[in-house]
Amino acid sequence: MDPIADDSRSRSSSPESDATTISCPNSPNNRPHRPALDDSEVTEELTLILEELQNVLEYIDQGMILQSFNTLSRLTDMAVTNCEKLDLVSDKGPMNQKTRFWTALNNCWLFAFSHYNNARSEDQCLREPHLHYLYDNVKAWADTLEKYGLVNYELGLWEQDILEAIECCLINTFAVTPTP
């Protein structure tokens, strides 16, 4: 059972604040098969993801924290699930494009966690179950990318840095402080 989906706090029905859960698309096994992309399609797909990462930064600036993590999770899942089709695993093709993509994705995660407590409203707050859910997702994405050597290197998911950011959020926000 997904702890995020059980969050029964009040929800706003406005389109900007309907991100009360953090979710990822269906597993790769449930997705329809898509043919391999040609170079221009790969470039276009990566450009679209980078544009959506820009939206994540805007959500953060607007205090839409849960929305930002929902979008960031969806984009990361899309990249991990389709890393071969997006040509993120091979040494061929433009390396600067791959480096730019991974750097943007990882920095977006780190920036989002550095602003996790700046929610504009209660329904956009990141709660402890959200952080645990994100932690588990990051571990799963890293496990998937490990076979390609795309973990904790310039090209790939910065698993260690992202997990440390999640742990800092958990410690700083949800740690029980002893009473004197």
Question: Could you name the key traits of this structure?
Answer:
single chain; 180 residues; mainly alpha; 5 helices; disordered N terminus
| N- and C-termini, Cα separation | 38 Å
Which residue ranges are poorly predicted, with pLDDT under 50 across at least 5 consecutive positions? Answer: 1-21, 23-35
**What is the overall number of helices?**
5
- DSSP strand tally: 0
**How many individual domains?**
1
Oligomeric description of these chains: single chain
Percent of residues in helical segments? 40-55%
| Dominant shape | globular
User: What share of the residues does DSSP label as strand, in percent?
Assistant: under 5%
Region (Disordered): 1-38
Biased composition (Polar residues): 15-30
Biased composition (Basic and acidic residues): 1-10
